[in-house]
Amino acid sequence: MAAPKVAVVGAGVVGLSTALCIAETCPSCSVTVLSDQFSPNTTSDVAAGMLIPHTYPGTPIHVQKQWFKETFTYLFALSNSTEASEAGIHLVSGWQIFKTAPTPKEELPFWSDVVLGFRPMSEAELQKFPRHQFGQAFTTLKCDCPPYLLWLEKRLKAAGVQMYTRKVADLWELHSEYNIVVNCTGIGAHQLVGDEKLFPVRGQVLKVHAPWVKNFIRDGDGLTYIYPGIHRVTLGGTREKERWSLSPDPGTTKDIFDRCCSLEPSLRGAQDTKVKVGLRPSRWCVRLEREVLSRGGVKLLVVHNYGHGAGGFSVHRGTAKEAARLVGECIAALRGSSSRAKL
Description:
Its EC number is 1.4.3.1. Its main location: cytoplasm. Strands 3, 4, 5, 8, 9, 10, 11, 12 and 13 form a 9-stranded mixed β-sheet that branches. Strands 6-2-1-7-15-14 form a 6-stranded mixed β-sheet, with helices on one face. The protein is an alpha/beta fold and 343 residues long. Helix 1 (13-25) packs parallel to helix 7, helix 1 (13-25) crosses helix 10 and helix 3 crosses helix 10. The chain has one domain (5-337). The protein is built from 10 helices and 15 strands. Helices cover 32% and strands 29% of the residues. It is elongated, with a radius of gyration of 21 Å.
């Protein structure tokens, strides 16, 4: 059969990574990325890009750990390369702090042996946070966007992947042009495939200029965080379920800034504040599976990879590798059916 044509729909961190993994593992394919938005206008551009996993209740922990480990290993190698600066990947050390004594799961999260140097905070360190009783110190990785998305786009172009701005209203509209379609549309899947289990969790963040802030600080409740990037510090945040508004809320901006200043008072001197809003594509578990669409005896092979919620950056490479493996299974099925047709 001719080289299989694969369309990846969506150009956030999950879509671009998935396209790259497919191009790397299935070099005989022709891969195209289709999206109505590219960086700097994706949800991924709003995200802080910190590798601190969020748990998916409906996905087995060993699977989540594997996804995180593969992502961490990939980015750690990148952070040790000459491309680290261009890709916006860097190590950052800091603290996750809790107002009350943690549960055993919080005390030793499943990812504690993947990040670097994970340990309980000392009494001396905790003095920085008088309202918190317990904390963890560790070093993890951060992906700065847009640099990381632009680096992925550059890698895709080098691998011969085509990228087109196109609004896909129905996956079936691609059946005459492509053999396999990979759905990485994030919150867009709510409308595109009618996924009622997918819902937005609105996140508003501030990107500020505060180059003296070097350590990350994350409140264990996940609401307040300070994540230093290469050029700007991300301050957050909000987790507003089922809210679709992309308009910044001035009251929320003040609240985020005040909360972050209570953890890091020096932020009062931060300048050049930019406010960003994104909709995290949340569901009980990441949807990572094959599906066959058929109409009138014609079939279209689909692989879904969406619903990463707040943890997309932490697992993007691991889920992309799994999606690429599923695409490989689809190609094998296509080849099997074409050889049977010849018989």
